[in-house]
Amino acid sequence: MVRPMPFAVAIAHERDHLAVSASGPAKLADVLGLIDLTATIAKMAGHRRVLLNMLHVEIAFAFTEHLQLGAYAAERLGAMERVASIVDPRLRIGTSEKAAQKMGLQLRTFTSLDEGVQWLAGDLRASRPGT
Predict the structure, then answer these.
(1) What is the average pLDDT value for the chain, to the nearest integer?
(2) How far lies 70's CA from each of 44, 64, 66, in Å?
(3) Beta-strand (E) ranges in 1-131?
C-alpha cells in the first residue's frame, strides 16, 4: 500500500524574517493551521516579516476557500510589516492575496522564491550599514 505524502512544515529563523516552508497535499484546514503556527512563532520570536514558501504545496481550493484564506491570513498576520507568499505558478490566482490586502495585510504573492525574499527585505537593505 502506498501512503500519501504528508503535509509537512519547516521553520527557519532568518536574520530579517521568519521563513516557513510547507509541502505536500493540503486542505484548507491545513493551510489555516499553517497560518496559526506562523503567527504564533513570529509573535513569540519577535519577527515582523514572514516568508511563506508554499511552492510545493498541492491545493485545490474553491473560490470561497481562497477568500476565507485571505481573510484569515489578514486576521492572524495583521501585525506583520510584510508577508511574502510563494506559490507554484499554476496555483497563482490572486484571490487570497487581494482579500488579505483589502483587510490591511501587507501581503504579496510571488511565483519565485528569490523575488519574494527580495521584496520581503525591501527597505531593510537601505537602512543596514555596509549593504
Answers:
(1) 92
(2) 22, 10, 6
(3) 8-13, 18-25, 49-58, 82-87, 107-110
Read off the pLDDT band of 92 (50, 70, 90): confident
At residue 124, the pLDDT reads 61
At residue 19, φ and ψ (nearest 5 deg) are -105, 120
Closest by CA position to 30, among listed 3, 45, 52? 52
Q: Looking at the domain assignment, is residue 88 inside a domain?
A: yes
In a domain, 111, yes or no: yes
pLDDT of 50 above 60: yes
Task: Give the CATH number of the domain where residue 116 resides.
Answer: 3.30.750.24
How are the residues of the chain apportioned to helix, strand and coil, as percentages rounded to the nearest 5?
A: 45, 25, 30
pTM as predicted: 0.89
